[in-house]
Structure formats: C-alpha cells, structure tokens
C-alpha cells in the first residue's frame, strides 16, 4: 500500500474584502455629502408639507390624506435629524471629557 507524501500548505491569498492597513483615511467629504443630502431632503419634506398645509387652509386641497402624510413624514424626518444632532453633540462632549 502506497501512501502519498504530504504536500506543503499553500499560503492564503487576500480576498480583497478588507482594505490594507496602510490606506490613508478619508477626509470626511463623503460623510459631509451624505449629511448635507439628508438635511436637504428634510427641507424638501418640510416645504412639501407647508405647501399642502397652505392648500388645505385655502380650500385648494382635494386630498387631505396627502397633506396628512406629508406632515407626518416631515415631522418624523425632523425628529430623526434632531435625534442625530443630539447624539452627535453628546458624543462630542464625551470626547472632550476624555483625558489623554
């Protein structure tokens, strides 16, 4: 009975899933762009809600559900932005309290 010799173990190859450790950090422009887009979206929702509210008051609105949905969307989006801001301020204050 012949037994085949054990071959050497081949080295593992990088999968490309993780970035190499030497990559430079980003400058934060992607985060700033995403945050600016989110704020612009909230402003757009607020403007839509205001327009539909004016139409409801003046009697030009045909579908009250649209105004209600727009108002609710704007309120939820504004509450979300407020929560993110508060959490960011809390994180900043926590970092400032850290001792080196």
Question: Which characteristics define this entry?
Answer:
Flagellar hook-basal body complex protein FliE, mainly alpha, 100 residues, single chain
Summarize the SSE layout with pairings.
Elements: H1 29-58, H2 64-97
Helix pairs in contact: 1-2
Main location: other
InterPro entries: FliE
Region (Disordered): 1-20
What would you note in describing this structure?
It is built from two helices and no strands. Helix 1 runs antiparallel to helix 2. The protein is elongated.
Tally the helices. Answer: 2
Structural class: mainly alpha
Beta-strand share of residues: under 5%
The helix fraction, in percent, is 55-70%
Globular, elongated, flat, extended or rod-shaped: what is the shape?
elongated
Main beta sheet strand tally, sense and closure: none
Order of helices and strands: HH
Q: Give the assembly state of these chains.
A: single chain
Q: What is the tally of beta strands?
A: 0
How do you describe this structure in short?
Keywords: Bacterial flagellum, Cell projection, Cilium, Flagellum. The chain is mainly alpha-helical. Helix content is about 65%, strand content about 0%.
């Amino acid at each position: 009975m012949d037994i085949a010799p054990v071959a050497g173990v081949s080295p593992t190859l990088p999968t490309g899933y993780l970035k190499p450790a030497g990559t430079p950090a980003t400058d934060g422009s992607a985060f700033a762009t995403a945050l600016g887009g989110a704020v612009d979206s909230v402003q757009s929702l607020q403007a839509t809600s205001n327009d539909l509210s004016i139409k409801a008051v003046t009697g030009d609105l045909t579908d009250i559900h649209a105004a209600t949905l727009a108002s609710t969307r704007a309120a939820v989006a504004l509450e979300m932005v407020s929560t993110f801001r508060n959490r960011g301020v809390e994180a900043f204050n926590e970092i400032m309290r850290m001792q080196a």
